[in-house]
Specification:
By secondary structure, the chain is mainly alpha-helical. The protein has two domains: 88 residues, EF-hand (Recoverin, domain 1), CATH 1.10.238; 84 residues, Orthogonal Bundle (Recoverin, domain 1). Helix content is 60%, strand content 5%. The chain has eleven helices and four strands. The strands form two sheets. The chain has a two-stranded antiparallel sheet. Helix 2 packs across helix 3, helix 4 packs across helix 5 and helix 7 packs across helix 10. The longest helix has 15 residues.
Length: 197
């Protein structure tokens, strides 16, 4: 997305705003509003993991979203520098808030693929599902089934070729058949109306 210098992004030109809008599902005006809020809360142009996790704790007070928020942070942080720039934030937010099902599933695949090797292992599935359980806290919908059992159930239903690894195609196909996964895709607090960094 061009120049990532936080000082230049602090005062974006119309051309830069339009470029971001053209790569997202946001209008120029929405980019301006998100930009204003982002820099109001992150004056140096960088959102730190601790701040991101605090946002999740505010939205999910009934549980402990720290681990899940950390995994989500790692997906937003495309350049792996330990912070989220405005353009990284906006691009990910665009997909999680307004992307189509396949875009959201591709994004979710990158969330579950913790080691970024292009596959989801059973262990990675267990880590993410456990983090979701911790985040949502007590939930009657999953009462009686442990996070590990739920993760194994999901994994077994998705691993069509039974090789112990999920490809993106297996993940997409299995997720579309599993309402729990589809529901989990909507648990992004940054996509809620009125959310600010």
């Amino acid at each position: 997305m061009g120049n990532h210098n936080s000082n230049s992004l602090k005062h974006m030109k119309d051309k830069e705003i339009h470029e971001l809008a053209s790569h997202t599902y946001f209008t120029d005006e929405e980019v301006r509003k998100w930009h204003h809020h982002f820099f109001k809360d992150c004056p140096n142009g960088r959102l730190k993991k601790e701040t991101f996790q605090a946002i999740y704790r505010h939205v999910f007070p009934q549980g402990d979203p720290t681990k899940f928020a950390g995994f989500v942070f790692n997906v937003f942080d495309k350049d792996l520098d330990g912070t989220i720039r405005f353009d990284e934030f906006l691009m990910a937010l665009s997909i999680t808030a307004r992307g189509n099902v396949d875009e959201k599933l591709d994004w979710a695949f990158s969330l579950y693929d913790i080691d970024r090797d292009g596959h989801i292992s059973r262990g990675e599935m267990v880590q993410i599902v456990s983090a979701i359980y911790e985040m949502i806290g007590p939930d009657p919908a999953v009462a009686g089934i442990t996070a590990e059992a739920k993760a194994n159930q999901i994994f077994d239903n998705m691993d069509f070729n039974k090789d112990g690894l999920l490809t993106i195609d297996e993940f997409r196909g299995g997720a579309k058949k599993d309402p729990w996964i589809v529901h989990a895709l909507t648990m992004d607090p940054t996509s809620k109306p009125g959310y600010r960094t």
